[in-house]
Design goal:
Length: 105
């Protein structure tokens, strides 16, 4: 079970976008995530008439290492670490470390 999933609200902990908040758009491999509005870079793209795309300079999100983001905890209004708890009925759920509140109930 992953501690950070697609759709989670996360806070960037380090780097040029430190403190920015956004949702996870995609998991890239085992250890990287794409965060909405963070780590944007300008990429030069060629036009592709087969796909119907025009060329030029495009600004897009680049992957960030998973250790540099933290899940946003609405109770504390800060980034928080996540652990995995096993409930009595055998289900495994993610919970915040500071207050034990469950992310997916």
């Amino acid at each position: 079970m992953r501690k950070i999933r697609k759709g989670d609200q996360v806070v960037i902990r380090t780097g040029k976008d430190r403190g920015k908040r956004g949702s996870v758009l995609q998991l890239v491999g085992d250890d990287r995530v794409l965060v909405e509005g963070a780590n944007r870079a300008k990429k030069h793209e060629k036009p592709n008439p087969m796909k119907g795309t025009t060329g030029g300079i495009v600004e897009k999100e680049m992957p960030i290492h998973i250790s540099n983001v933290g899940v946003f905890n609405p109770a504390t209004q800060k980034a928080d670490r996540v652990n995995i708890k096993t409930l009595d009925d055998g289900r495994r759920v993610r919970a915040f470390r500071t207050n034990g509140e469950m992310l997916d109930a």
